[in-house]
Design brief:
- The protein is mainly beta and 115 residues long.
- 10% of the residues lie in helices and 17% in strands.
- The protein has 2 helices and 4 strands; from the N terminus they run αβαβββ.
- Strands 3-2-1-4 form a 4-stranded mixed β-sheet, with no helix packed on it.
- The chain is globular and about 35 Å long.
Length: 115
């Protein structure tokens, strides 16, 4: 959605527009690639282990911190949820989550290519 906060609010359910409740997927605008719900609503728990310094030393393209994913219980949490402020929902914002715990606002995102 770019750097524009208004664009983010048109594409994602966040603290500012969700009423602090989750919503059915696909009800807001998609991004330029036709993907929906990549920000807000439910956060994405990814395979990468969380490290505060990983991106300082990682490759520029497609960095993945999967080497410690088996031993580090903290994983990267991206995209924010319906309870997060819009600044936490940016794709550049990487938060961490203690992966062994259950987290009702987190999950994973699916993408289906139309044929």
């Amino acid at each position: 959605t770019g750097d524009d906060e208004d664009g983010l609010l048109k594409a994602g359910w966040l603290q500012e527009n969700s009423g602090l409740n989750p919503h059915e997927a696909g009800r807001l605008a998609g991004n330029p690639w036709g993907l929906f719900d990549t920000h807000g609503n439910a956060g994405e728990i990814v395979r990468d282990a969380y490290s505060a310094t990983f991106y300082l030393e990682s490759p520029e393209y497609d960095p993945a911190n999967i080497a410690d994913a088996g031993s580090n219980p903290y994983h990267v949490f991206r995209g924010g949820t319906y309870t997060h402020h819009l600044k936490k929902a940016r794709s550049a914002s990487r938060n961490n989550i203690y992966y062994p715990n259950r987290y009702a606002q987190g999950g994973f995102r699916l993408s289906l290519e139309k044929r």
